[in-house]
C-alpha cells in the first residue's frame, strides 16, 4: 500500500473516531462537512458572504450550512453577522 492511500485511510478512521466521540457527547447531528465551516469560525466571525468566499461556494450554500448549525437540534455555533446588522458593526 502506498503512503497516500495509507494517509487517506488514517484520515477517514480519525474522522470516524472524532464523529463517534461527538455523537457520544450529544453532537450526533454534526456532519463531516461542518468541520470546514468551523475552521473559519475559530479566529474570526465572518459574514455569510465572507464564509462563502473562504469555502469557495455560493452564499446560498454557506447560508444553508450555517442554518444547519443554528437549528435547535444542531450543535451550538455562533450566529454569523450579516452586513448592516448590529452584530456586524
Summary of the model, kept short:
This protein has 89 residues and is mostly helical. It folds into two domains: 1-28; 31-81, Arc Repressor Mutant, subunit A.
Give structural notes.
By secondary structure, the protein is mainly α. Helices cover 54% and strands 0% of the residues. It is built from four helices and no strands. It is globular. It starts with a helix and ends in a 19-residue tail after the last helix. The mean pLDDT is 85.
CATH class value of the largest domain: Mainly Alpha
Q: SSE order in H/E notation?
A: HHHH
Q: What is Rg?
A: 15 Å
Mean pLDDT score, rounded?
85
In CATH terms, what is the fold-level topology of the largest domain?
A: Arc Repressor Mutant, subunit A
Number of domains: 2
End-to-end CA span: 53 Å
Q: Supply the number of helical segments.
A: 4
Q: Percent of residues in helical segments? A: 40-55%
**Overall morphology:** globular
Low-confidence stretches: none
Q: How many β-strands, per DSSP?
A: 0
CATH architecture of the largest domain: Orthogonal Bundle
Largest sheet: none
Amino acid at each position: 500500500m502506498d503512503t497516500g492511500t495509507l494517509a487517506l485511510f488514517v484520515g477517514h478512521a480519525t474522522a470516524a473516531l472524532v464523529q463517534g466521540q461527538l455523537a457520544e457527547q450529544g453532537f450526533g447531528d454534526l456532519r463531516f462537512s461542518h468541520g470546514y465551516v468551523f475552521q473559519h469560525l475559530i479566529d474570526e466571525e465572518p459574514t455569510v458572504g465572507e464564509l462563502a468566499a473562504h469555502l469557495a461556494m455560493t452564499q446560498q450554500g454557506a447560508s444553508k450550512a450555517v442554518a444547519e448549525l443554528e437549528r435547535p437540534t444542531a450543535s451550538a455555533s455562533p450566529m454569523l453577522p450579516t452586513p448592516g446588522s448590529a452584530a456586524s458593526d
